[in-house]
Amino acid sequence: MPKIVTFGEILMRLSTPGFQKISQAETFECTFGGTEMNVGAALVNFGFDVTHVGVFPDNHIGKKAKSFIRKLGISDKEIHLKGKRMGLFFLETGAVSRASQIVYDRADSAFVNLNPEWFNWEEILKDADWFHWCGITPAVGEKPAIALLEALKVAKKLGVKVSSDIYYRSNLWNYGKTPQDILPELASYSNVVLASRKNIEEIFGITTEEDKGRFQMASRKLMERYPNIEKVIDTERIQISASHNRLNARMWNGDEYLKSQTLDVTHIVDRIGTGDAFLGGFIYGQLIYKDDLKSLEFGNASSALKHTIPGDQNLVDIIEVDSLMAGDGSGKLKR
Amino acid sequence: MPKIVTFGEILMRLSTPGFQKISQAETFECTFGGTEMNVGAALVNFGFDVTHVGVFPDNHIGKKAKSFIRKLGISDKEIHLKGKRMGLFFLETGAVSRASQIVYDRADSAFVNLNPEWFNWEEILKDADWFHWCGITPAVGEKPAIALLEALKVAKKLGVKVSSDIYYRSNLWNYGKTPQDILPELASYSNVVLASRKNIEEIFGITTEEDKGRFQMASRKLMERYPNIEKVIDTERIQISASHNRLNARMWNGDEYLKSQTLDVTHIVDRIGTGDAFLGGFIYGQLIYKDDLKSLEFGNASSALKHTIPGDQNLVDIIEVDSLMAGDGSGKLKR
Amino acid sequence: MPKIVTFGEILMRLSTPGFQKISQAETFECTFGGTEMNVGAALVNFGFDVTHVGVFPDNHIGKKAKSFIRKLGISDKEIHLKGKRMGLFFLETGAVSRASQIVYDRADSAFVNLNPEWFNWEEILKDADWFHWCGITPAVGEKPAIALLEALKVAKKLGVKVSSDIYYRSNLWNYGKTPQDILPELASYSNVVLASRKNIEEIFGITTEEDKGRFQMASRKLMERYPNIEKVIDTERIQISASHNRLNARMWNGDEYLKSQTLDVTHIVDRIGTGDAFLGGFIYGQLIYKDDLKSLEFGNASSALKHTIPGDQNLVDIIEVDSLMAGDGSGKLKR
Amino acid sequence: MPKIVTFGEILMRLSTPGFQKISQAETFECTFGGTEMNVGAALVNFGFDVTHVGVFPDNHIGKKAKSFIRKLGISDKEIHLKGKRMGLFFLETGAVSRASQIVYDRADSAFVNLNPEWFNWEEILKDADWFHWCGITPAVGEKPAIALLEALKVAKKLGVKVSSDIYYRSNLWNYGKTPQDILPELASYSNVVLASRKNIEEIFGITTEEDKGRFQMASRKLMERYPNIEKVIDTERIQISASHNRLNARMWNGDEYLKSQTLDVTHIVDRIGTGDAFLGGFIYGQLIYKDDLKSLEFGNASSALKHTIPGDQNLVDIIEVDSLMAGDGSGKLKR
Amino acid sequence: MPKIVTFGEILMRLSTPGFQKISQAETFECTFGGTEMNVGAALVNFGFDVTHVGVFPDNHIGKKAKSFIRKLGISDKEIHLKGKRMGLFFLETGAVSRASQIVYDRADSAFVNLNPEWFNWEEILKDADWFHWCGITPAVGEKPAIALLEALKVAKKLGVKVSSDIYYRSNLWNYGKTPQDILPELASYSNVVLASRKNIEEIFGITTEEDKGRFQMASRKLMERYPNIEKVIDTERIQISASHNRLNARMWNGDEYLKSQTLDVTHIVDRIGTGDAFLGGFIYGQLIYKDDLKSLEFGNASSALKHTIPGDQNLVDIIEVDSLMAGDGSGKLKR
Amino acid sequence: MPKIVTFGEILMRLSTPGFQKISQAETFECTFGGTEMNVGAALVNFGFDVTHVGVFPDNHIGKKAKSFIRKLGISDKEIHLKGKRMGLFFLETGAVSRASQIVYDRADSAFVNLNPEWFNWEEILKDADWFHWCGITPAVGEKPAIALLEALKVAKKLGVKVSSDIYYRSNLWNYGKTPQDILPELASYSNVVLASRKNIEEIFGITTEEDKGRFQMASRKLMERYPNIEKVIDTERIQISASHNRLNARMWNGDEYLKSQTLDVTHIVDRIGTGDAFLGGFIYGQLIYKDDLKSLEFGNASSALKHTIPGDQNLVDIIEVDSLMAGDGSGKLKR
Fold it and tell me: Which chains touch B (3 or more CB pairs under 8 A)?
């Protein structure tokens, strides 16, 4: 099966039971999440071989996180147990018009304080088929940004395909650099970029006119500037309420503008990690189906299914995604 | 109140909390279910006197199952504590486009290994008004099939009304016989048969043409062949998603084709046992209302309400069913 | 911030987990609720200073209830620990067409047996901006009715604004008086009355004709009879199912008939206390916005949000209500 | 198997999880208990046929209590669903030097308000071998006292053996009668009385001198006065801490003073109902072993085992009691 | 009742259920603890008026902590909601020879980053009877140390009694100062100091000879050097296992060496906060009994009882402590 | 670190919460256990590299078990997902004189039906330092016995050390062979045998006289007969109660009789898997300390600590064992 490498921070997630507000909770459900690792977890369930590269603190919490990713089926052999604390976040899950809320407590984590020299990327990426990264990594600290850049250079050298989720949350960039300083170079090493039109405009300074087809226009300009980028993908979400979303995905692949079906998710259980579930499904499609539209559809169906699973990771298998992708959203009991 | 006798296997049900996948669960919620017993449980809540006939293993699990049915209000005096194991199943509850999944572990159970001589049907059915059975019983083993046939013969002799749920799951028939070998004779002793048109065609070799009214046609042919059968009923389910179904029931009673209203169940809590809830309601209607359409409506409303209750059994009372049957689906708080 | 005083009974609420029926529950979730206190709790979350006046039994349960209201941020300094028992209720939460059910066990509580002389209303209401009461208080016993009347007289003397929820549940009036005997005098001291047209007709003997505008007509007649009443408000609820309601609020303020938007609550978590949440929001609007329509909208949005929170109290903050009131019901994740 | 009839009140028990104080609990574990019913429950586990006679309210709580006793294996056919409320108590479980605490809320319950004419004792006691009652029943109200006296007269007439637990809690006697008014007549119908020397002195006005053998002396005098009493039994408990007790039982049977071994219970899980467990074991001994010392030993071992089981009832079987009675307190794993 | 002021950091405590290792836990039980606040909490349960002075982050976690201390009955009006994060710790509870373990994650908390100018000590301490502080406060940062020194100066000026727990954990002192630099001046403002002989030697450079009475000797020298110190107290703990400890307390009060009884705690539920429970009891004794030996005994009994309560705070009332202090450790059920 | 290979069946363990009887449980806590895997799990926590060889069913339960052993840190690459069911057992945990009870439901599991040809032992054992097996494996079926014999032959050839736990439960041997038929040959390939004197006599037909030193005598005779056996070890357990055991271990190593200290475990949390914890510790001692007495002590301390951890596996680390082995059983809180 294909070998996937992901790199990024993992946080402990402490969520309230049911729909309790943080103020109500007497217990927190503990799991772990991290956008790149979540992508990997989805791929494990599709049968892939996944290694996550990361840094956890050298204490019982770091060891707990290691056992968590092993449980998911992800290799922990590139996890460094160094440093003092694990970032974490508190989550309360909303419903209807009440939004879910996250309180982050992630400053000064073991990952932020990593040493780029710890990672032997030649070794790590040796047999890999795909490397995935996200824009949070270079946001949280200069050292992660340096390590990521090295990884990308090695990936290019070794011919490993690279996908990136150009996630742009301005309040994370606190070490003196801006997304505009850092992300363009990193993106230039990617073969597939997940980004909205607005992201593209803000990060790369690309402009489009108010007109139909702005996403294609932005994507085309991005790909002209960075010829390594082969495909730009984007997920769209119509938020009817915290309990009800409509999902689709689209792509400019240099030749065509492709768009998936729209899937209706009417009783959301857990919205966190659904974008990562899309990417896991999309990468599966790229490597197995080798068909762009099917990749979008498989990714979109994966994302829809993730909305029904508690926790950060998508845990459905190929049968479940195939069934939905084939149009069966009936949820008929499997005996 | 009317006396009901049911006969069949009961399984331990181990379900994941909330919407967890089986892979996530650290605890399982334990209850018990069995299609015939579930029908009986619904009738207890409508005030009937119900005895379930069955076999549980002679250990703490069998005793636990006995106390479970007593708690429901079903008499356990015809339960035999003999044999080694209780069949069980693991359940994960789906949502939206993710289906619920069941993993069965029921082979070689105490029930499958029963001795037909253990049951004194003359005694058991002496004062009974109704006997209910399901097609799973003759599927799981030859001994249950023999015991069931004896029960049916005695029921006929004593004038006990018989209903049957011709449930046809081919992967359960593993002892050398087929549904076609066994079910027709058993069905011939029934006064009421729950079966889809497709079931009738497959089990009894009856053919219909692609045209309106195929269910009626199949039912009529079935009743011609087996004059003991007075009514054929069928439940229909439109599965919009695992969280949202639409339900109705219909009947051919020899004279008329009757069809209930369609009820919309938009936020499903637990779909298991909803067919049994229909049958419980239908039998109530037959014995109390003595009106076929009302029986269908009462059954259909019962089934709709069961979708909101965790566990295998319908636990609503007559007031709740009457209210929905009378058209009040508003769920207005009762103080 | 404004100072609010509320007066009324508080009950222990014992609710089944998930959607269990009372018959199924092996544990009960314990919280406390009381309509007037719930109004206060909502206002604490909007930054107000709230004191609840009440009576709890002088035992561990009474102390637990005191610590509960402190946790909510309500002052417990006017709670009297006297008497023997705390009223309580058992709750099972319905879904779809299955209604929630409440079993009350509230007779002969410490509150019902209060001594009106315990309360020094001059002191309690000294700096208050608003006093809120509900029609349950004079229903449960003569002593609470007397204490309430005294409070209202003092409030009038001190110029404290008064709102009342003319809640009329006939089965609560068991001490020889009727709502018609008692409520009109109490209502005459209120500046704002929450009442449906039907309530107004039944309690005050006011008649209206079957025609458009009956609520306005009833309100106008009420205000003519009791000139102290400045505004009559009413909440309307279309109950599509126990899981899905539509909400709006309306008002006759002497000059104009005002009506809020209708909000759709499609996945109800907990319906209890949503009327109180409306009133909390409405009072906020009256004191902060000083605008009647905005008060209705803020109240209606508060009520809609409460439907998503387990327990009796609304725990959302101003940001959450403002967001919904501004039309954003998308429930978009807040990081 | 022997048939046992018990009569008395049953309360809902709401206990805090783990060792939480009542002030801490956010959930309560719900079960039911009642001293006479607890005695019966123990006997069900030893194979006896037990019917409890009682009154529960005619609501969902009363029905829940009925299903609870059925689950235990006790017949509910003599339970009357009449009246308005079920008494209840809150329990926090202590440890070491912190005592367990109970907050009662039992006033004005359905049982207290029973109508003695509801019970057809001739029918109820027809085939019974043993009837058991406790001193709480005549304490809580005059009507229960009247019903009990009638039951005792019928029992005597039919030759049913009677045991009584002369439980004397002065704060329960609130309807104008004292234990001294009522208990002597009731005790006079008993064949076996469980009472401490102090109980005998206070209730019956019997005096003994400070000397060895005062229990025997009191018992002898009691039996002289009431010749129907054949045996007086007493349980002794040395309370080293809330977690560690030492238990023994003793008896004067008219001929001999008998005393059981002392059993050391070092890690108490739940102390409630341990006296009832003793009585259940003792009655088993009387009816099966027909040997007084063995009855004391079986009762004392039963009581010791009950200390390890959560809830009010003893749920061990004969094998477990026999094993401890035979001296094996090793708790060796049974596979 | 006496008014108490405490000042110090509060941490969120996330503990594993039962005896799970951190690696096993899927949920964490959430509460809050802080040594000074814990002392205050114990005093609230003895009827005192307690205000805690502290700093929580300005987010949902900080608000949750505020509501937590209000629930305990502590005034939150001197809590500042400023800063970004709340320190926290993970706890696994050991048993027998397996020690409990704590993983701290408390660096850079809102409390550590406080501004000493936020606190108006003249106002805060105006009517106070007692001020309590602990050696952790000056350890975690220079700003807390400055704030504390100011508080102590004001306390002295206003004649408020001061107690201190000279807690000396060297790994907490990371900002460039040592305990020896800071603690002596702070201690010089205390009237009562809790310190072991070893603490006194290490912090103050006081020497004693290996001989009986070294604690008295050290205490005497300390009091000679700092004449404001009137009493030195010390708690001793013999740790037989994580489940079984023996406790006593001792004091040098300038005149006499006093020592409490030794209490045996054989089934420990939660050992955290037991030293704080001692101090709460001791301060109660000082202010109510005004007797040094009784203060030690009340404190020691309080500490013993705290070992049976989950969470950081002592929640027993005076009746429970009095009972144990009077020698009744029988844990006899209170009805 | 040393590489360990274990081979054997793994069962799902469904245990009741707290001290509930099986009859009481509404939920079961789900984990997995297997004696050989448990030994491996203990060694993972000591830093070893462990591979378990086994067979799980090809369904969600088998996958769940795989993720469970990965979470523990055991390699799952030699787990075959083939067959239909996973054996399981229900556990209720006793206390004091009430024994824990296990109900097995393990017949006809995937492991029992394995095909010996699935295992390439040359490959599996290539770099291994140690192989461990237990007498349950050849008991449950002929195919496991054949696979085990092959493994042992390869281990011998490759010079891998072999330990065996000659577990002899007669009711497991149901396929026509006896322990006497099978175990001697298997044992002959072991370097270390864990067996009681009674086991040795019964399995190998070795006789000893009633006299001191019978274990040494039996061991010596065993080693004479099977020269490959270098050491015979035995664990002794004095069962004071289900809550309190005393533990020691002993050995005959051909030269000396060695005996560990006795450790007192006074508050047992979970007794299951404590023998496996001993073996894990013992193997650690053999490979790291290379000292027999230290091996016994490390094993015995490991076993003692396991009694405090819920679940089948020992999860303590070297620091914790070292501390107890060094005599510190004080359970002093680690911060």
Answer: A, C, D, F
Which residue matches tokens 């070491």? D96
Q: Is residue D331 part of a domain?
A: no
Take residue E294 and report the two structure tokens written for it. 């009784």
Per-residue pLDDT of chain E (335 residues; tens, 9 = 90+): 899 999 999 999 999 999 999 999 999 999 999 999 999 999 999 999 999 999 999 999 999 999 999 999 999 999 999 999 999 999 999 999 999 999 999 999 999 999 999 999 999 999 999 999 999 999 999 999 999 999 999 999 999 999 999 977 888 999 999 999 999 999 999 999 999 999 999 999 999 887 778 999 999 999 999 999 999 999 999 999 999 999 999 999 999 999 999 999 999 999 999 999 999 999 999 999 999 999 999 999 999 999 999 999 999 999 999 999 999 999 999 88
Helix (H) or strand (E) holding F134: strand F130-134
Determine the residue among A44, A60, A66, A71 to mutate to test chain F binding: the one whose Cβ has the most chain F Cβ atoms within 10 Å: A71
- Determine, yes or no, domain membership for D275: yes
Any A CB within 8 A of B100 CB? yes
The structure tokens listed for A185 are: 């170079």
In a domain? residue F309:
yes
Q: Which of A21, A96, A272 sits opposite C267 (nearest CB)?
A: A96
Structural domain for A59, as ranges: 1-18+27-94+104-114
Number of neighbouring beta carbons within 10 Å of residue E207: 11
Say whether residue C14 is in contact with chain D using an 8 A CB cutoff: yes
The DSSP 8-state label assigned to residue B308 in this structure reads T
Chosen from C269, C300, C302, C323 to mutate, greatest number of chain A CBs within 10 A: C269
Whether residue B71 and residue D68 make contact (CB cut-off 8 A), yes or no, is: yes
Which residue in C has a C-alpha nearest to residue D64's C-alpha?
Answer: C23
E298 within 8 A of E289, measured Cβ to Cβ: yes
List the chains bordering chain E where 3 or more Cβ pairs fall under 8 Å: A, C, D, F
Instruction: Look at residues B34, B40, B53, B23 and name the one whose alpha carbon lies nearest to residue B151.
Output: B53
Helix/strand/coil (H/E/C) assignment for every residue in B231-254: EEEEEEEEEEECCEEEEEEEEECC
Facing residue for D308 by CB, picked from F96, F267, F272 = F96
Q: Is F86 on the interface with B (CB under 8 A)?
A: yes
- D67 vs B contacts (CB less than 8 Å): 71-73
User: Is B84 in a helix, a strand, or coil?
Assistant: coil
Q: What is the DSSP string of F66-85?
A: HHHHHHHT-B-TTEEE-SS-
- Phi, psi dihedral angles at F222 (to 5 degrees): -60, -45
For the question of whether the overall pTM of this predicted structure is more than 0.90, the answer is yes
User: What is d(CA D246, CA F163) in angstroms, rounded to the nearest whole number?
Assistant: 44
Interface residue F25 vs chain D (CB under 8 A): no
- Which CATH number covers residue E102? 3.40.1190.20
Q: CA–CA separation, A117 vs A150, rounded Å?
A: 10
| Cα–Cα separations (whole angstroms), residue E242 to A60, E264, E278, E300, F270 | 20, 13, 19, 18, 16
- Which residues between 265 and 324 in chain A have a beta carbon less than 8 angstroms from any beta carbon of chain B? 265-269, 301, 304-305, 307-311, 315-316, 320, 323-324
Domain count, chain D: 1
Q: Does B99 contact A333 at a Cβ distance shorter than 8 Å?
A: yes
Helix (H) / strand (E) element for E152: namely helix E142-158
CATH of the domain at A38: 3.40.1190.30
CA A307, CA B94: separation in Å to the nearest integer? Answer: 11
Radius of gyration over alpha carbons of chain F, in Å? 19
Residues 6 or more apart whose CB falls under 8 angstroms from that of C145 comprise: C137, C138, C177, C182, C186
- With respect to residue E334, please indicate whether it lies within any of the assigned structural domains: no
